[in-house]
Amino acid sequence: MDASAGIEMITVPPGQVTLSDRRTQRSWPVELAPYELAAFPVTQALYAQVTGQRPSTAQGDRLPVEGVSWWDAVRFCNTLSERDGFAPAYHLHPDGEGIEWDASADGYRLPTEAEWEHACRAGTTGPHYGPLDEIAWYRGNSQERIHEVGAKQPNPWGFHDLLGNVWDWCWDVYDAEVYGTYRVLRGGGWFDEHWSCRASARRRSHPSYQVDDVGFRLARSTTH
């Protein structure tokens, strides 16, 4: 499938992943049912097709969309779900601040960070699912710019660019007691050093911030 405008979803098998946070020295296991995750980050072509907007700093149909906030991403998920005949996963409050996730909906959504890490690891146990230069665009090889999706090798389950290129917004709140509404980012980006491009690395950002190395990829709940 053309990665620029199409949506290639991969069914991820159930499993358990143990999340960890270096700042708090905390770790916690999460059990996961099967779900679907997009093989590529959302591209600028797909984002423009659905929203009519091109917010990214660097322009190109096959480049990952960036410069999108967490709120932009969840609204995109709902709009795409409605376009494709699915039930929207998110109910947004009229005040523009509150949101609920309808876990029974079949529409597009952001992955949880546990889903993201489970798909990223794809059964591997190290910090990367392959040699970093072969699988990721990061500061060591990106020439400090974003790159087209799918140019690096996929992981064993067929996912591209989970590490490097752009960080992925996830559904989860990072640490409500310390950082309030800040949401989780995963995966590392084109401007990050190698130690940020690890399956376990967590970062955070305010859900209203739009950053030039932060994008997202689509997930869907599945019953099969």
Describe the structure.
Helix content is 17%, strand content 22%. By secondary structure, it is an alpha+beta fold. It has a single domain (9-221), classed as Alpha-Beta Complex (paralog of FGE (formylglycine-generating enzyme)). The strands form four sheets. Strands 1-4-12-7 form a four-stranded antiparallel sheet. It has a four-stranded mixed sheet with strand order 10-9-8-11, with helices on one face. A hairpin with a 6-residue loop joins strand 5 (90-92) and strand 6 (99-101). It is globular, with a radius of gyration of 16 Å.
Précis, in short:
The chain has 224 residues and is of the alpha+beta class.
Topology readout:
Elements: E1 9-12, E2 15-21, E3 26-32, E4 35-38, H1 44-51, H2 70-83, E5 90-92, E6 99-101, E7 108-109, H3 113-121, H4 132-135, E8 167-173, H5 176-179, E9 183-186, E10 202-205, E11 214-215, E12 219-221
Parallel strand pairs: 8-11
Antiparallel strand pairs: 1-4, 2-3, 4-12, 5-6, 7-12, 8-9, 9-10
Primary descriptors:
single chain, 224 residues, alpha+beta, paralog of FGE (formylglycine-generating enzyme), 4-stranded antiparallel beta sheet, 4-stranded mixed beta sheet
CATH-derived architecture: Alpha-Beta Complex
Number of helices: 5
The helix/strand series, from N terminus to C terminus, equals EEEEHHEEEHHEHEEEE
> What is the C-alpha radius of gyration, as a whole number of Å?
16 Å
Count of the separate structural domains: 1
CATH class: Alpha Beta
Helix-strand makeup class: alpha+beta
- Main sheet makeup: 4 strands, antiparallel
- Helix share bin: 10-25%
Categorize the overall geometry.
globular
Q: What's the count of strands?
A: 12
Q: What's the CATH topology label?
A: paralog of FGE (formylglycine-generating enzyme)
Uncertain residue segments: none
Percent of residues in beta strands: 15-25%
N-end to C-end Cα span: 22 Å
Widest sheet: strand order?
Answer: 1-4-12-7
Mean pLDDT: 95
CATH superfamily assignment?
A: paralog of FGE (formylglycine-generating enzyme)
